[in-house]
Each structure stands twice: as structure tokens, then as C-alpha cells.
Amino acid sequence: MRHPTEKQHRPRANSAVVLRNPTVADAAAIWRLAGDGEELDLNSPYCYLLLCQHFADTCLVAERDGDIVGFQTTYRLPCAPHRLFLWQVRVAQSMRRRGLAASMLDGVIRLPACAGVTYLTGTTTRSNLGMRALARRFARKLKAPYAEEPCFPEHLFPNEGHEAEHLFQVGPFDLRHLQEEGVD
Ligand SMILES: CC(C)(COP(=O)(O)OP(=O)(O)OC[C@H]1O[C@@H](n2cnc3c(N)ncnc32)[C@H](O)[C@@H]1OP(=O)(O)O)[C@@H](O)C(=O)NCCC(=O)NCCS
Prior knowledge:
Blueprint: E1 17-20, H1 27-35, H2 45-54, E2 60-64, E3 67-77, E4 80-91, H3 100-110, E5 119-124, H4 129-141, E6 146-152, E7 165-170, H5 176-181
Parallel strand pairs: 4-5
Antiparallel strand pairs: 1-2, 2-3, 3-4, 5-7, 6-7
Helix pairs in contact: 1-2
């Protein structure tokens, strides 16, 4: 896995996947990938353009042979910049269970734009075993506490059948645990 913006992220041998910050030119591909399945709430194309413009330094895309095969939209909470909020992450079906989402999470937290971050938070439904496993893995790797608590109950969602969202929190953590270990 190559991550051109972070020197500590060493290349993985024979990997054709590159992790990089997005540009506005990636927004349409991110929108298509976000909508390619039922798992995510699909935001408007304009929303992904804003993310790629205003939050590009804390977001990542995974590119393989010119195609976007994964993305992660993350930003520092304006009211608490030591907290990195993971909004959406999606990996193309064909690329799942190979450590790509884990690499994006490990990669973003090492970026200069995340200096001083000591918590990762986000929301997830109880049934999203992939998301919960991803966050728990991150907590294990950073030797940090993991917690979940209710956040947005079902009745706050206008669309019928939307599960309640629970806030997960990893932290506080010390990035030296990642640096000591090296990279996948
Ligand atoms: C969640 C998702 C991003 C994981 O991507 P991935 O690249 O397959 O994940 P990784 O291979 O890096 O795996 C990370 C960890 O999660 C676990 N995991 C991944 N998918 C899982 C699943 N469906 N069920 C249980 N565990 C899962 C892996 O085993 C690994 O944990 P481990 O190290 O303890 O074994 C991917 O399944 C996806 O795109 N899902 C649809 C979108 C979504 O639900 N996003 C989250 C909400 S925004």
C-alpha cells in the first residue's frame, strides 16, 4: 500500500493500491462508490465535492489502476479538533477483507493534518459488523479503550427502517504505538 504523503507509511511489496488525499476530480467516483450498494446513506454529489475541497487533507481515497476502490471521509471536529470523526468509509466489494479499510484508517491518522488527534469517533448501526470490527481493530492496534453509546435513535431519521446509530469512540491513544510497529 503506498501512501505518498506520509513518509512513515512504507510501501507494501507488489501492491497496486495507492492511498492519497482526494481532489475535487475524485468526488464523482466517490459518490458512485458510496452508492454502489445499500450499506451507506448516499449523500449528494455536491456533498462529496465539498468534502474533497474542504476536508481533503483528512480524507483518503484508495486508487488501483486509475479506479477509486475505497474512500474514507474523515474530519476533525470543529468544536474538539483532537477528535477525528469518521463519517463514511467504503471499500469496493472485490477488495474487501484484505486490510484496505484498516490501512486507510492507519494511514489517515499518521498524516500531518491529524497531528494532535487523540480520539477516533464515528457512528455505526449495531448490525454493521464490518464497521464495528474495523473500529475495534484500530483500538487494539493503538492499545486504546473502545466504547459505544447510543447517539441518534431511529425516530430522528425521516426514512423508514433506518436503524439507530451508536457513537463509537477509540481513545485516548498515543500514535507512538503505530510508529513503533511500522506499517502493514
Ligand atoms: C466496513 C468496510 C469498510 C471494511 O472494509 P475492509 O477493507 O473489508 O476491512 P478490512 O479488511 O480492513 O478489515 C478490518 C477489520 O474488520 C474486520 N471485518 C471486515 N469486514 C467485516 C465483516 N463484514 N464482518 C466482520 N468483520 C469484518 C476484519 O476481519 C478486520 O478485523 P480483524 O483485523 O480483527 O480481523 C467494508 O466492509 C465496507 O465497505 N462496507 C460497506 C460500507 C460500510 O458499511 N461502511 C461503514 C459505515 S460508514
